[in-house]
Amino acid sequence: MKKNDIIELEITSLTNECSGVGKADGMVVFVPFSAIGDKLEVRILKVNKTYCYGKIERIITPSPDRVTPDCSIYGKCGGCSLRHISYEAELKAKAQFVTDAFTRIGGLTPEFLPIVANDRLYGYRNKLQMPVGVDKEGNIISGFYATHSHRIVPCDNCLLQPEVFKSITDRIKALAKELRISLYNEETRKGNLRHIYLRKGHYSGEICLCLVVKNNEKKLKALIDKITSEYKEIVSAVINVNPRDTNVILGEEEILIYGKPEITDTMCGNKISIAPKAFYQVNTPAAEKLYAKAKEFAEPNGKIVLDLYCGAGTIGLSMAKESKKIIGVEIIPEAIENAKKNAEANGIENAEFICADAGKAAKILLEKGLKPDVVIVDPPRKGCGEEAVNYIAQFGAERIVMVSCNAATAARDCGYFDSLGYKATKVVPVDMFSRTAHVETVVLLIKG
Ligand code: SAH
Known about the structure:
The chain has helices at residues 87-105, 163-178, 218-230, 284-298, 314-318, 333-345, 358-367, 386-394, 407-419; strands spanning 6-10, 13-14, 19-24, 27-32, 39-47, 51-61, 111-112, 127-134, 140-145, 152-154, 193-200, 207-213, 234-241, 253-259, 263-267, 270-274, 304-308, 325-330, 351-355, 374-377, 399-404, 422-430, 440-447. By secondary structure, the chain is of the alpha/beta class. It has an 8-stranded mixed β-sheet with strand order 7-22-23-21-20-17-18-19, with helices on both faces. It has a 7-stranded mixed β-sheet with strand order 10-9-8-11-12-13-14. The protein has a 6-stranded mixed β-sheet with strand order 1-5-6-4-3-2, with no helix packed on it. The longest helix has 19 residues, at 87-105. The protein is globular and about 65 Å long. The relative contact order is 0.11. The mean pLDDT is 97. It binds S-adenosyl-L-homocysteine.
């Protein structure tokens, strides 16, 4: 097989990055945006020793899973990966990603419970982070970076965002033009406005607007004054200053220009405050289903619960009433401040929050003799890692509940726990990020 060969291929599975997989000439061929059951003519783009990459040249027979994608920039923006198959097929694929991760990477055989579906496939995100720039004609554009690149694919109507975000984004672009606010260019590092960041309380409707800029300048306040007078739902507007040449969106300095420093929302019946820098699950109703599963697995009644990687404390607080005590640990100071405030605002007196690295905090709490009955871990994509897992296992808690947005690292970490005497007994995938490749997983690990 060589570059530019055209081959016939049947797609038999999907990778967890949603690339279709088929076999030809003893080679594995990866084809993005294909579907299980597709019979395709594929052009080979790149050949490695045992596998190669191709792209669809022609669909000979479409998979029964196929549907017509309903977004004009699908395949270009790097956001969605599954708009070309039915939601039913998506759920099946995601359940398979999780099963494969646990059996292949973790070498584990837990009970796999049915995937929990998302109720809304459109407008479910409560947060938008859009880079802004200028196109060749000099028009201000906002959108998403193309896959593996920093080229902005303009997007005026992302189907995953609530409609009000589109309206606010359009207005910001118009005001930026009117006020002659310059747009940041990643290559030359010139210009000022970098990202538009919006977050909306799902139940409260309160919106936080955050303009990420290279430098603070007076015109930004003028923009914020205007937009907050037009959109009453914007109750918090901040400027975030990020002068660095970096992929990280938010910078350190944050200047409150209008309203309150954070918005409020309701999560599992608790009133929650969330600062722009604090992590908050992007799909609130789906997160409530996720937390309900975590609670079901934790069986927190009368127990001491250690909630590691707690963000604004939302998981622990969702089970505080039943628990004897909640101890939350999180590395971002703003999130910990929110967590403390959130406990207080809900009259929760049995919760305590520590700002620290989860592994280091686990080590210190162990030395202090803390004996949690349940440990919840909800790490970022890279997982807990072996060192943190080692400390966590030493608590000897009867159960560990792992919540993860990356089944591969979750399976790896569950493998570490397995060697330390914790059996992954139940795994449930939860679909929070419909139409994208992402899937959330909740795992129950039992001691002995
Ligand atoms: N449980 C929370 C947050 C989950 S996201 C919720 O459901 O909302 C993962 C969280 O881990 C983020 O808040 C992130 O800031 C935090 N984090 C990342 N690395 C960490 C570390 N080494 N130690 C503690 N917290 C960490």
